[in-house]
Amino acid sequence: MNGLKSKHLLGLEGMTAEEMGVILDTAASFREISERPVKKVPALRGKTIVNLFFEASTRTRASFELAEKRLSADTVNISKSGSSVAKGESLRDTAENLQAMKIDVIVIRHGAAGAPHFLASLLEASVVNAGDGAHEHPTQGLLDIFTLKGRLGDLKGKKVTIIGDIAHSRVARSNIFGLTTLGAEVTVCGPPTMIPPRIEELGVKVEMDLRRAIEDADAVNVLRIQLERQKVNLFPSLDEYAVVYGINRKRVAMMKPDCIIMHPGPINRGVEITQDVADSDRAVILEQVTNGVAVRMAVLYLLCEGVQKEPPPVDAAVEEEKTDSKVT
C-alpha cells in the first residue's frame, strides 16, 4: 500500500490531507536527489511511462520527462501533431493501443475536461492528469503547495490569494482544492467576468478589490489570462487589466514584507506581473519549477512502486551509472 487511495492522480478534489502529505514527504526526498552530482536513481527501472500531450507545454512536459529520466524509467513522448489522432484516430483507440504495448503509466494533457478520467476508466495503466481543459492540474497544485510549505511551514490558517482568470484556470482549481483541505484561507481576486459563479461554495472568499485581497496575504499566486480558453473578450484590453489587476512594485509595497509571490507560468510580463517583480527576491517562480520535478518524481514513484521502498541512495545511482557505462 502506497498511502494513496487510487492508482491514478486525476485531481486534488477529494484527496485527503494524509494523501497529500505522503506525496509531499516523498517529494522532499526526491528534491535532494536533484541536488546531487548524479541526478539519477534506478527507482523505476523497467517501468514504461508515456507522455501524451495534446496541448502545448514547456514546464510541465519537460518536468515530467526529467522526473521520469531521473527515476530511470523508459519514456515515450507523443504529441497530437505526431500521433494518429491527427489522422482521425480517437483518444480511446490511441490509449488502448498504447496499453497493448504493456505500458505502466500515461501522463496526459488534453484540452477536454475529463479526458484523464475517461482513460482511467478504460486502462490498466495508471493515469496522471497533466492538465485537462479548465478543470484541474493536480501536479501544479501539489508543487505550489510544496513550495508554500517550504516557505511558510504548516499551511493551516495561512492566507493565500489567487489573482487572475479564475474561471478558466485549472491551476486555480487544484490550488483551491489542495489548500483548503490543508486548512489555508484562500481568497480569489480578478475581474467579475473571470470569477466563476458560486465559487464561494468551494470554501474561498471572493474579493474584487485588489488592495484588500493582497494586504494581509502570506502568499500571492498570480495567474495569466487564459486567452486561448476564452470564447469572448472578458476584459476591455490587456493594458487595462495590467492597470487594474497587474502586480507591480506599487502593489508589492501594499503586501506584508514577508509575503511571497508565485506564478505557475507561462508569464506574460507587463500584463499580470511586471518584469521587476517577477525577477525580484519576493518571487519564488523558479523555485516552483525546481520543486515541480521533485513532486512529479514522487507522484510517479508512488503510483508505480509505493512508499514502502525508500528512494535509492546516491551510491545506488553511481553504481548504476558504472554498470551502464560497461554495456556495449
Task: Provide an overview of this structure.
Helix 1 (17-33) packs across helix 5 (138-152). The protein is 39% helix and 13% strand. With 328 residues, it is an alpha/beta fold. The two termini are 38 Å apart. The chain has twelve helices and nine strands. It folds into two domains: 17-136 and 290-306, Aspartate/ornithine carbamoyltransferase (Rossmann fold), CATH 3.40.50.1370; 138-287, Rossmann fold (3-Layer(aba) Sandwich). The strands form two sheets. It has a five-stranded parallel sheet. It has a four-stranded parallel sheet with strand order 2-1-3-4. The mean pLDDT is 91.
CATH topology description of the largest domain: Rossmann fold
Overall form? globular
Spatial order of strands in the largest sheet: 7-6-5-8-9
Kindly state the percentage of residues in helix. Answer: 25-40%
Provide the domain count. 2
Write the CATH homologous superfamily of the largest domain.
Answer: Aspartate/ornithine carbamoyltransferase
* Regions with little confidence, pLDDT below 50 for 5+ residues: none
The CATH architecture of the largest domain can be named as 3-Layer(aba) Sandwich
Along the chain, the helix and strand elements come as HEHEHEHEHEHEEHEHHEHHH
* Mean pLDDT, all residues: 91
Number of helices: 12
Biggest β-sheet description: 5 strands, parallel
What distance lies between the first and last C-alpha atoms, to the nearest angstrom?
A: 38 Å
Overall CATH class of the largest domain: Alpha Beta
- Helix/strand/pairing category: alpha/beta
- Whole-angstrom Rg: 20 Å
Number of strands: 9
Fraction of residues in β-strands = 5-15%
